[in-house]
Amino acid sequence: MFKWLFGIVGLIVLLAVGAFFVLKRDDIPYATLAAKYENGASRYVDLPGGIRMHYRDEGAAQPANGPPVPTIVLIHGFSASVYTWQAWVPKLGNQYRVISVDLPGHGLTQAPAGYRPSIENFRDAVFAFTQAEHLTHFALAGNSMGGNVAWEYALAHPDQLDALILVDAAGWPHPNEGALNTSPMMKALRNPTLGPILMNLDNTRVFRQGLEAAFADPGKVDDAMVTRYTDFARAPGHRQILLQLQTGTRRQASDDVLGAIHVPTLILWGQHDHLIPVGDAERFHHAIAGSEVKIFDNSGHVPEEEAPDDSSAAVLAFLQRMHQAQVTTAPAH
Questions:
Q1: CA separation (Å) from 178 to 210, 248, 271, 274?
Q2: Helices 204-214/223-233 angle, 10° precision
Q3: What is the pLDDT of residues 138-159, one digit of tens each?
Q4: CA 20 to 30 Å from 116, out of 77, 96, 202, 247?
């Protein structure tokens, strides 16, 4: 009896180990990823601490003479990359220099061994980037986790910012988070046992489910998008960083914390966001004095991808109003 039972258990273990090695996926070298995903606007800069940051510098060029072209810096969300902003570039690029960055552990940005990812460390990496690129005044936009980085940046370096744009931004606490329609990808990665195993396997299906949860219309998630996310997650060291982000702590948004933001702020949100509830848009609006809110009926968690025309138009209109107000209130000489 016991011999039979042990035999069955041994067979199950053998099959599980065999399945692991069949489904296991090795890292993809950065050179391979760069050859596939760089474009003509791709640039790299070495930052203090061993970060080699990839970014794209697009849109209007700075003139040799005359006033400088205004700049907008874009920060993606969890497991995303500069690609999330690609539909905004032609919309904003006629009037703005558009710079999108890959955070450490994302896209084509290389982080040093032992890098500890956090909202604060991402904020500091973006600051180091702006210093290296001599960016002194710009608008800053962030989606989801990148929105959390952006509002922390506004608190730490307000003198640099002309405007703050929060796109379905993270940060507010949710005591009933388990009741929210959290994506299967997030639930799996937060499991301390399953997460590390899952990230070393072929997780194409998990990423597809997570992406489909981010869109109001899941049909907009295509194979190329899923492949891009899974490829970037397999860059050296990226899987460990993505896992650590699921268990780390961060400062939570509150009226007191956000009340210190005095930068002109625009809040954009998808009405059908199943990852961060649309009610958080009003919480940001209430906390940040003078902020504006725009809700998109045709979008989920990533309106920059799902409603690029409407969301980019809202950004342009906001920046133009802000600029006009600055001109109107500027002291006469």
A1: 16, 17, 20, 13
A2: 120
A3: 999 999 999 999 999 999 999 9
A4: 202
